[in-house]
């Protein structure tokens, strides 16, 4: 039996990979490279319990049983790696997990959810420097080509993840980490997170960069092999043009103010 899983998400370029390797440095938590499959699997689960409900009924599968089958399917992706790691708990970090937090919360009634949030202006600055390509079309995603679209993406990610915090029955299972706190007050930030996760403090989470691991193909894989640095905090001040900043504020001002970024 697994201990309750941890699902991590957040806007791309918010520090999700940094948080992943820090948690993976804990002796009880395995958090490997991005699986990326959970949004697709969660969407299929949604179809199974809604549009395909009559079919499920025909097979004598109620909603709880369907969720159990999906839960076992998802867990099976982690069996081998978790066993090899010798750890007792798996975490999965893919930025777009925020878009399926609510589905995963039903599939895994005991799971906990972590969203890392970063100043949207810095997120936009970083996204615009990414040479990402969309699977299939090979085109750049709109949110890496336009400050306005990047800001809209950031707002959508934060809002999707925070749906758990709004619902009374899931708010206690949701935790937010600020990128800036993780960089500037790493011990305090990680202690709070580990307390939420029900795990003991271990200083190895702060020496993540000295541990040899599979860093996967994530865009920050090289950066997280280095010690913490505050060099990217406030990068928007030199990176964004006045016009781009206006676009960011058009979509993101309310959330930036709500999060006390401006």
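-> sequence recovered:
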């Amino acid at each position: 039996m697994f201990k309750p899983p941890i699902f991590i998400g957040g806007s791309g370029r918010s520090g999700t990979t940094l948080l992943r390797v820090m948690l993976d440095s804990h002796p009880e938590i395995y958090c490997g490279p991005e699986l990326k499959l959970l949004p697709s699997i969660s969407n299929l689960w949604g179809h199974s319990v809604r549009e395909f409900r009559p079919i499920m009924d025909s097979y004598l599968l109620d909603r709880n049983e369907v969720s159990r089958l999906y839960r076992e399917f998802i867990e099976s992706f982690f069996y081998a790696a978790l066993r090899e790691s010798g750890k007792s708990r798996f975490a999965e970090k893919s930025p777009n997990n925020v878009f399926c937090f609510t589905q995963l919360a039903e599939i895994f009634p005991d799971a906990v959810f972590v969203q890392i949030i970063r100043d949207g202006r810095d997120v936009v600055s970083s996204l615009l420097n990414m040479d990402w390509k969309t699977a299939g079309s090979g085109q750049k995603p709109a949110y890496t080509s336009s400050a306005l679209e990047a800001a809209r993406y950031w707002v959508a990610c934060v809002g999707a993840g925070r749906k758990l915090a709004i619902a009374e029955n899931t708010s206690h299972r949701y935790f937010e980490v600020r990128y800036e706190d993780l960089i500037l007050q790493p011990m305090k930030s990680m202690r709070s997170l580990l307390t939420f996760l029900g795990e003991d403090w271990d200083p190895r989470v702060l020496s993540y960069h000295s541990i040899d691991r599979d860093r996967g193909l994530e865009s920050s894989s090289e950066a997280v092999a280095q010690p913490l640095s505050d060099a990217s905090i406030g990068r928007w001040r030199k990176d964004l043009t006045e016009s781009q900043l206006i676009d960011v504020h058009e979509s993101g001002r309310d959330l930036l103010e709500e999060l006390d970024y401006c």
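The chain has a mean pLDDT of 94.
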